[in-house]
Amino acid sequence: MNTSKATLANHLKLDNKAMKNVSDKMNDLLSDYHIFYQNVRGFHWNVKGENFFDLHVKFEELYTQLYENIDELAERIVTIGFKPLHAYSDYLKNTIHKEITDVSDGDQCVKHVIDGLGSLAQSHRKAAKAAEEADDIASADLLTRFVGDIEKRMWMFTMFSK
């Protein structure tokens, strides 16, 4: 009976160095998600103006999806044998997003959401490229699925702001 633990080397059979790069890129993405998620929650709580009712609901829909993606992304990092970041100090060090505070104007909130979604899509592409190069098709598929949804939401918010 084989009682050895499953590892990258004996279970997934993927190159550990390449997978470390995938993990690093996905942890950067996880950091991006957390900061953007918190920004969107702030927009949800603080938005004012004539589009309050529409935006309040849309921001909640967005941050709910971001939360679900965060969980799947972190679990994928564990699945490939690494540790997801889990401290806000680490997120702030590893994100391309800036914390956005004291924004309540609906148009400004939407502009920040569009910009944030665009940055998030860019981070997905970097992580997906690393996954493809490592032959990690499951991570690449997950990231591709996420970016498709993000791009669709970016399009919808862009149409709202026209």
Automatic annotation (TrEMBL):
GO function term, MF aspect, one: DNA binding
Domain of life assignment: Bacteria
Domain Ferritin/DPS: 24-158
Family matches, as Gene3D superfamilies: 1.20.1260.10
Keyword Glycoprotein in annotation: no
Keyword field contains DNA-binding: yes
Keywords noted in UniProt: DNA-binding
Protein family (similarity comment): Belongs to the Dps family.
Name this protein carries in UniProt: Starvation-inducible DNA-binding protein
Species in which this protein is naturally found: Algoriphagus winogradskyi
Lineage, opening ranks: Bacteria, Pseudomonadati, Bacteroidota, Cytophagia, Cytophagales
